[in-house]
Specification:
With 461 residues, this protein is mainly α. It has a domain at 391-460. The protein has helices at residues 3-8, 14-27, 34-46, 48-55, 61-80, 86-99, 113-119, 121-129, 133-153, 161-186, 197-214, 216-220, 232-235, 251-266, 269-276, 282-302, 317-325, 330-350, 359-383, 391-411, 430-434, 437-460.
Length: 461
């Protein structure tokens, strides 16, 4: 059964999946301007889920964030290409912020979609130079700071947790800071958002650490040489070498190290909440909140899960679709965080080895986060009572259930055999319902179950 069985066991994810599919199709419709079309086409190629949320932002912020993302992907491609000589790579990283002003700039590096991005990077430069000057200034400054930070870690091992935080700041915390400055520059958010560098940094660190944890196996197997950012101060407590964790014989130690890494990531969560509580534009909120919720869900799925060392552990696609559909305000944010924190707490209580060294701190951080989210959700509900259900929705549900119920009632002869069991207006058509009695029963049962499920999903949405 596989994916079908997964879908049938979570019927409330069917409609969100369909709507997310339609949103993804809409995101593939490119602008008429050929340069913008290239940028948004690349965005779809390298990050489809990101493309969906960015398309919901108003302009000029939407175009600026699209270009910001592609500029940083270009910088990241230079950093990631292990075929580039270090003597060439270091100065390129430090001057990449100058390249984005150089019309016609291209570079041969990267793989797959990223190779094409770098081969046509001059198109990105054209769109960058058409952005509002304040947006250009933000993108160039963050690119400069990130390039210098990446160069620092090209030949530097991540030893301490402080090193780990610093690396994640350079590659992701700065992204959060730059986005905050773009939100403020666009006028969609208060100017104070652009100055909240500490909170924005935590937003980036929470996302980046989730990716680093989830991608252990992919990164350790990277050719020609792995680039790993798990800090030695954490993994060194559990094995002589970080690569040891991919061996099945070391799975117990690997899982304990994994739990320690996830516990470290959880310390950023309160700051992420504090940041998102300041946002006022619903689309900016969704843009920020959806990745944070998905990071929390990914950590919950990875926690105490040895499959992290066998492949990539992901959330169900249907669950992702529900997050995209039901993340519109702080109440939704708190609800989702509580769900994933509860899943982690269940593992802590029922699955984790009691001798796991990080367990006490994990339990403490989960409990504190759950308490804070629960209190905030209670206050949110008090100040934002749900709207009363519309008469149109009630009529829709009543008619759907009545019609399918009447069909089921007659086909199964619950009112007795014959056309007399039908309403008088329908009796002339009884012969239609009497054909293929066995098939009619199966169809009526399936329809009744389907309508019940759809009504339940729509009323919960």
């Amino acid at each position: 059964m596989g994916k079908l069985g997964e879908l049938l066991s979570h019927p409330n994810e069917i409609m969100p999946l369909l709507r997310m599919y339609r949103a993804a199709k809409r995101a593939t419709k490119l602008p008429k301007d050929p340069d913008l079309a290239f940028c948004y086409g690349m965005l779809n190629d390298v990050s489809r889920s990101f493309a969906i949320v960015i398309q919901q932002l108003p302009n000029p912020l939407r175009d600026s964030i699209c270009v910001f993302y592609l500029v940083l992907r270009g910088l990241d491609t230079v950093e990631d290409d292990m075929a580039l000589d270090v003597d060439f790579k270091l100065p390129e990283l430090r001057r990449f912020h100058e390249r984005i002003y150089d019309r016609g700039f291209t570079m041969e590096c990267g793989y797959n979609h990223y190779k094409r991005l770098m081969a046509q990077f001059g198109v990105v430069v054209n769109v960058f130079l058409a952005l509002p000057p304040p947006h250009q200034a933000v993108i160039a400054d963050i690119t400069r700071r990130m390039g210098y930070g990446m160069a620092e870690f090209i030949e530097k091992e991540v030893v301490t947790v402080a090193d780990y935080d610093k690396y994640c700041h350079y590659v992701a915390g700065l992204v959060g800071i730059g986005l905050s400055q773009l939100f403020a520059a666009s006028g969609l958010e208060a100017n104070s958002i652009g100055t909240e560098e500490d909170l924005a940094n935590h937003m980036g660190l929470f996302l980046q650490k989730t990716n680093i944890i989830r991608d252990y196996l992919e990164d350790i197997l990277e050719e020609p040489a792995p680039r790993m950012f798990w800090p030695r101060d954490i993994w060194g407590k559990y094995a002589p070498a970080l690569a040891d964790f991919k061996e099945p014989a070391n799975r117990g130690a690997a899982v304990r190290c994994l739990n320690d890494m996830i516990t470290d990531a959880l310390r950023h969560l309160p700051y992420c909440l504090a940041y998102m509580e300041q946002l006022r534009h619903v689309m900016v909120f969704r843009f920020c909140a959806i990745p944070q919720i998905m990071a929390a869900g990914t950590l919950a799925a990875c926690y105490n899960n040895g499959r992290v060392f066998e492949g990539v552990v992901k959330m169900r696609r249907g669950e992702t679709a529900r997050i995209f559909e039901t993340c519109n305000d702080l109440g939704d944010l708190y609800t989702w965080f509580l769900q994933f924190l509860a899943a982690m707490e269940a593992k802590v209580s029922n699955e984790v080895d009691p001798t796991d060294p990080s367990l006490p701190l994990t339990r403490q951080r989960i409990a504190e986060a759950r308490k804070a989210c629960a209190a905030k959700l209670t206050e949110w509900k008090r100040t934002h009572p749900p709207p009363s259900e519309s008469g149109a929705a009630l009529t829709r549900d009543f008619l759907a259930l009545s019609i399918t119920g009447a069909y089921f009632y007659y086909v199964w002869q619950l009112g007795g055999p014959g056309s007399e069991a039908l309403p008088e207006l329908l009796r002339p058509y009884a012969w239609v319902l009497e054909q293929q009695a066995g098939l009619q029963k199966a169809v009526s049962l399936a329809l009744l179950v389907l309508v019940f499920l759809l009504v339940a999903v729509l009323r919960r949405a």
